[in-house]
Amino acid sequence: MTEILFTNRTKKRLPQNAKQIVSSCCEQVLASEKFSGDAEISVTFVTNEQIHEINLEFRGIDRETDVLSFPLGEHGEYDKDPATDRYMLGDIVISVEKAKEQAKEYGHSVSREI
User: Fold this and answer.
1) Alpha-carbon distance 63 to 51, whole Å?
2) pLDDT tens digits, the chain, 114 residues: what are they?
């Protein structure tokens, strides 16, 4: 079983179905990668300003972006959370503002962009 740990740092309501869409995408990726075992993934929804700061701090890139990922483990080896016995796969950070901007730019829904 995969547990998705969601955090909303935007102080605004998330787009409809955002959590369900991300959960479904994570499950599909794990299935396509034939990942077996219990896992946890951290997903944080942020503003453009927040993702800009994270991008600068961790990648040295001084601008906002749509998504950042911070995978844990290498070559299929992952640490387990001792409290849950789940493999810790990493963190995903999504700018909701950027998703809205790009959805408008590309002419599709915010849900699809997320």
Assistant:
1) 8
2) 899 999 999 999 999 899 999 999 999 999 999 998 999 999 999 999 999 999 999 999 999 999 999 999 888 889 999 999 999 999 999 999 999 999 999 999 999 999
Give the span between the Cα atoms of 23 and 55, in whole angstroms: 23
2-113: which CATH number, 3.90.550.10, 3.40.30.10, 3.40.390.30, 3.60.10.10?
A: 3.40.390.30
DSSP string, 29-69: HHHHTT--S-EEEEEEEE-HHHHHHHHHHHH---S--SEEE
How far apart (Å, rounded) are the C-alpha atoms in residues 96 and 93?
A: 10
- Structural domain boundaries of the chain? 2-113
Bridge-based pairing of strands 67-71 and 87-95 is antiparallel
